[in-house]
Amino acid sequence: MHPVTSENLYTTLLRHLPEVLPYVEVAAERHGLRVADVSHWEQLNTHPGTLLSEVLAYPLFLPALAGGRDGDFLTRCFAFVEALLESPGGYLEDTAHYTFVEPCLKSREMLGRALALALPHTRRELWGLIRTWNIAPEADWPH
Length: 143
Fold this sequence. Notes:
Elements: H1 9-16, H2 21-30, H3 48-67, H4 71-85, H5 93-101, H6 108-117, H7 120-132
Helix pairs in contact: 1-4, 2-3, 3-5, 3-6, 4-5
């Protein structure tokens, strides 16, 4: 996946993670729009982190990670997070960090699953948090 930019955030999200569509529909309806009428996240009058929290992180990503299910979905999610972290100029890096990476610390199980599925940039972010928060790593957590 190519790095996600502000310009392609919305289209990349829908293309790679179509499971978000029902949640995007709710967000669009709040603004009197249909999903078919939305071409850019700014039309939903929200910050990218808020949008991604509402349509992906909280309803889908974190429950799947906590439940240890749907490996394909989580693999696509981590590819999307990686692409956010690689956004040109770091514009979406904080969004990725606070919306997806940091919440992986909710439990040791979630953190272990996240490390197993994360791509290199995301895994470095997770290990940085492990060191920062003095979390004792499990021997089987991938580096």
